[in-house]
Amino acid sequence: MRSFIMVFDLQDSSDSVTICEPLFLELGAMIEIQPAMNPDDLRKGLAALQQRG
Question: What is the CA 3 to chain-centroid distance, rounded?
Fold first, then answer.
């Protein structure tokens, strides 16, 4: 089994389908997605959480 790490900027989480599905279908790849965010994204998410509560 081989592996690689791919890092990309998703504008919308649904974009992961167009990126991952061809790898899965054409190569039979096992895919594991680990979302990550930068500090600005974290601040934005925490602010939205505070507004909900």
Answer: 17
Domain with 37, as residue range(s), is 15-52
Write the secondary structure of the chain as one string of H (helix), E (strand) and C (coil). CCCCCCCCCCCCCCHHHHHHHHHHHHHCCCCCCCCCCCHHHHHHHHHHHHHHC
Alpha carbon distance 12, 10 (integer Å): 5
Q: What is the pLDDT of residues 9-47, one digit of tens each?
A: 888 878 888 888 998 899 888 888 888 888 998 999 999
Q: Is residue 2 part of a domain?
A: no
Residue 51 has pLDDT above 90, yes or no: yes
In a domain, 8, yes or no: no
